[in-house]
Amino acid sequence: MRRTQNEMKSIEEICAVLDQCKVCRLAMNHDGYPYLVPMNFGYEREGNKIYLYFHGANAGTKKELIEKDGRVAFEMDVHEEARISSVACNSYMDYESVCGTGNAAIADATQKRTYLEKIMRHYTDIPFEMLEKAIEKTMVIRVEVVTITGKFHRTGKGE
């Protein structure tokens, strides 16, 4: 990272951003070009290791690409309103972002409920139930994060 003063130095800082994000953009390999999809997600942290969880239809491009090549990249961010100045180079936006790479795999039937619960818990603390029929029809993706970095810009810092 070129501007190291804007780098998040700890896994705690990175997880604080993950907690705020509602969408993760997941990129898969597709014939030499990235196939990028914004997705709802959940995550868990085990020590310094992070796992991301996604869900979708149990057929289609995402499933085919992950089965063919599980190497993925991801990005998520939180930002505030842009602050525009009459001098363009004095305009800015405060933000926090996380990017990384990982190895994706389709979860087997015994893991799906647990991973779907992690996705739901990312968005709510209210009690919920899951229908077995829906779980059976759902594909769940687990990404073991290999690299992860965080970056921020806050007014008056890292400019």
Keywords:
159 residues, alpha+beta, Pnp Oxidase, Chain A, 4 helices, 25% helix
Q: In short, what is this structure?
A:
Helix content is 25%, strand content 41%.
Cα distance spanning the termini:
15 Å
**What's the number of structural domains?**
1
Helix content: 10-25%
| Uncertain regions spanning at least 5 consecutive residues | none
Sheet with most strands: 7 strands, antiparallel
* CATH architecture type: Roll
What does this structure look like?
By secondary structure, this protein is an alpha+beta fold. The protein has one domain: Electron Transport, Fmn-binding Protein, Chain A (Pnp Oxidase, Chain A). It has helices at residues 11-20, 61-68, 109-123, 132-137; strands spanning 24-30, 33-39, 42-46, 49-57, 71-79, 95-106, 138-153. It has a seven-stranded antiparallel sheet, with helices on both faces. The longest helix has 15 residues, at 109-123. It starts with 10 loop residues before the first helix and ends in a 6-residue tail after the last strand. The relative contact order is 0.24. The model has no long low-confidence stretch (mean pLDDT 90). InterPro entries: Pyridox_Oxase-rel (IPR024747), Split_barrel_FMN-bd (IPR012349). It comes from Lachnospira intestinalis. This is Pyridoxamine 5'-phosphate oxidase family protein. Pfam families: Pyridox_ox_2.
